[in-house]
């Protein structure tokens, strides 16, 4: 006999994220699509990012 079909329920992929909304920092549950949009609009500095020094060659080439 054939198995009966079940009604599948799709849930939204929500994540907790700290967002500045109307000047107030708060934790919100955002879907991944909204989270990607917020991250692209607001540049969030990362802790592991090492600042790179500008090459002296570039400065000399710009001066010449």
Key words describing this protein structure:
disordered C terminus, 2 helices, 28% helix, 64 residues, two-stranded antiparallel ribbon
Mean pLDDT across every amino acid position: 76
The Cα radius of gyration reads 23 Å
- Beta-strand portion reads 25-35%
Widest sheet: strand ordering: 1-2
Order of helices and strands: EEHH
Structural class: alpha+beta
What is the number of helices?
A: 2
Q: What is the overall silhouette?
A: elongated
Describe the largest sheet. 2 strands, antiparallel
Task: Please provide the count of β strands.
Answer: 2
Give the helix level as a range of percent: 25-40%
User: What oligomerization state is this entry in?
Assistant: single chain
> First CA to last CA: what distance?
83 Å
Uncertain runs: 60-64
Secondary structure layout plus pairing:
Layout: E1 14-21, E2 24-31, H1 32-41, H2 56-63
Antiparallel strand pairs: 1-2
Task: Write up what this structure looks like.
This protein has 64 residues and is of the alpha+beta class. It has a domain at 11-43. The protein is built from 2 helices and 2 strands; from the N terminus they run ββαα. It has helices at 32-41, 56-63, and strands spanning 14-21, 24-31. Strands 1-2 form a two-stranded antiparallel ribbon. The longest helix is centred in the middle third of the chain and has 10 residues, at 32-41. The chain is elongated, with a radius of gyration of 23 Å.
């Amino acid at each position: 006999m054939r198995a009966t079909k079940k009604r599948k329920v799709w849930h939204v992929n929500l994540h907790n994220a700290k967002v500045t909304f109307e000047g107030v920092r708060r934790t919100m549950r955002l879907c991944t699509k909204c989270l990607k949009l917020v991250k692209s609009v607001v540049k969030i500095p990362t802790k592991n990012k090492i600042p790179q020094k500008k090459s002296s060659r570039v400065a000399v080439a710009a001066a010449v």
